[in-house]
Amino acid sequence: MNPAHPERAAATSTSPKLSSKAERFTESVIREMTRLALRYGAVNLSQGFPDFPAPAEIKNAAKAAIDADINQYAITWGAKKFRDAIAAKFERTQGVAIDPEREVTVCCGSTEAMMSSMMAIINPGDEVVVFEPFYENYGPDAILSGATPRFVKLRPPDWTFDPDELAAAFGPATKAIILNTPNNPTGKVFERAEFECIRDLCVRWKCFAITDEIYEHMLYDGARHISLASLEGMRERTLTINALSKTYSVTGWRVGWVIAPPEVTAAIRKVHDFLTVGAAAPLQEAGAFALQLPQSYYDTLAEEYAARRERMLGILGGAGFKCFKPRGAYYIMTDISAFGFPDDVAFAQYLVKEIGVAAVPGSSFYRDPADGRTRLRFTFCKKESTFQAATERLAKLHPSR
Ligand SMILES: Cc1ncc(COP(=O)(O)O)c(C=O)c1O
Q1: Ligand 1 within 6 A of CB of 110
Q2: Would you place residue 1 in the very low, low, confident or very high pLDDT band (cuts 50, 70, 90)?
Q3: Which of 262, 266, 304, 353 is a good FRET partner for 383, with 20 to 30 A between their CA atoms?
């Protein structure tokens, strides 16, 4: 310690202070569960990635692109061919015509698309409305971009929201609402009347909507996916986020995009450029191929996931879990009250270490951990041998041990 220069002494005796933003959130619980699954040799039903192969034709398109030497930087906001395919698919499926030159930014997964979008629109003091339970990334996204989240509850069994509660969350400080449909973790698919309610609030308070639509093709029981941007009055204020990850079973490729009005896209492109420069060039080429697949590809995908949903509902129901049946996406939220554990984290730890099955504690989807205390989320984007292994292991589990 140097008494003559206390500030110098302080600098040498302690480490430099880390970002106070980074101190405000923990590592991802979902990704942590995958690490625990590996450590304990557990069947991994936590993180949402398929354990079956990606479609051969899409893999071949990626290999062909590498062989054709599409190996250097693509245009920073996305290869033209890929942006054209994104625009064509959005018009084909949602009836919304967009300009691929001015309204699309290709990013490193929808994760980066969300972060770049938030950083492009948020100013100090801005608030974002977030439905709860929420996909856990939205919390750190808000902190890193400087937004204050205002949470609105989705309530089981149908995960509906109270329109008055939603209206009360909006105000002069609201910059955007973040909406994920089909929804992770609940499996909720938002309906037209709910979208109209959201639209009216966005128009009234002159704010944006950021929609995360990466499960758009995983729909069950006749559910239909609606893009908020297709509603009158929303085209000019919606940022629509999507990715190759889930629809084409390539979560490791890290290719996503955001569709937004031209002036918003201009800001997003700048943030994106300095964050990552661009997404993998050959994989964008394969993406251009994937997005032109015929409707039969998506029909088969939905049918196969519907069968996996039934399989998983049977396994979990048989093991004593109370399941909330999802209408979309590939997760099942469960009620674990019957097992008599003090909370979701204790139960998830017991499951992964003693039973050999990894799932995600419900508290990681809520601001207040107490709200997720009796819940656990399982994913069903898995192959038959994984379901069989899970069935065998869960047979050791007994409600109210
Ligand atoms: C709702 C939601 N958004 C985004 C992501 C991440 O997507 P990507 O792999 O495209 O970054 C996930 C992954 O599980 C998710 O569930």
Answers
A1: yes
A2: very low
A3: 353
- The verdict on the CB of residue 109 being under 6 Å from ligand 1 is yes
Average model confidence (pLDDT) for the chain? 94
CA–CA gap between residue 216 and residue 47 (Å, rounded): 18
The DSSP letter of residue 176 is: E
Q: Which of 132, 135, 210 to mutate to test the pocket of ligand 1 (most atoms within 8 A of CB)?
A: 135
Q: Are 133 and 362 in contact (CB under 8 A)?
A: yes
Residues found in the chain: 401
pTM equals 0.94
Note the pLDDT tens digit of each residue in 267-290.
999 999 999 999 999 999 999 999
Sequence-ordered alpha helix ranges (H) in 49-151: 56-67, 80-94, 109-121, 138-145
Q: How far is the CA of 30 from the centre of ligand 1 (A)?
A: 11
**Hey, what amino acid is at 187?**
G
Burial of 269 (0-12, 13-18, 19+ CB in 10 A): buried
Sheet holding 331-335, edge to edge: 322-324, 331-335, 375-379, 360-361
User: Ligand 1 center to residue 137 CA distance, Å?
Assistant: 8
CA distances from 86 to 7, 73, 215, 255, 287 (A): 55, 19, 16, 12, 9
For residue 72, the CA-to-ligand 1 centroid distance in Å is: 26
Is the C-beta atom of 256 inside 6 A of ligand 1? yes
What spacing in Å lies between the alpha carbon of 151 and ligand 1's midpoint? 20
Question: Residues 6 or more apart from 325 whose CB is under 8 A from it?
Answer: 187, 309, 313, 332
- 42 alpha carbon – ligand 1 mean position (Å): 23
